[in-house]
Input
Amino acid sequence: MLLIVSVSGGAGSTLAAHKTVEKFGLDDVELVFADTNTEDESLYKLLEKMESNLKPITRLSDNRDIWDCFDDSGIIRTPTGACKASLELKQKPIARWVKENCNPSDVIVSGLDWTEEDRIKRFDKKWYPYGTYHPMAEEENKMALCDMKSELEHYGYPTQDLYEKQYPHNNCGGGCVLAGLAQWAGVRRDFPKRFEYHKKREAEFNKKHNNDFTVLRDQSNNTAKPLSLTEFEIKLKNNSVNLRDFRTGCGCMLGEQTNIFAELNKGRE
Output
């Protein structure tokens, strides 16, 4: 029986890999990473450290980034509202690899934790008839985000830029097409070159496909209409959009968080 850990660079899956190895041994564990080629540089350094700590990672990539995927398919979101790139660059490659390399007796390991019961149920259903294992949902591994960060430091992992800036996930360099206005304002502030790249590719995408598919939606005035990153940036410069703080953190740190959007929202109701 093999245990296949789908590592993403997130704290949960990184620790899940270690907990699985500690419980079942290194020889019975396989590490697999599906690359969107859009991740933060610190995430790739984490993967290198994981290989040093544990074993080589099977890396799945067709060399496209998320915008290459959107261009090829002509859409950003699937009809169900999911990210098209996540489907094509992460979910399908991992499922294909499992089908080609695993036996029905093998087990798929997630980094989902004890707070994600609904996601665990969906994960189990998706991978049936393979068995599943969720080490971070076990009683002995229940921990808050600050505990996870401390555990990662214990294993010698490099600091992750997105977590240090209190982004909720360590995915796609913060530029998630399912994130809201506030997080994209954060990307523009924290990673201006990254924001410019997404803005440029979105404009090129819509020119190429002659449509108005956009990352963001303007839901003011009880309506929902496409809002390009170019238009969003203008709104930010004009101070004409209200933003909620998207940043997250450990409960013990919430009182110390600085709301960077207070300045952006200054002077407005």
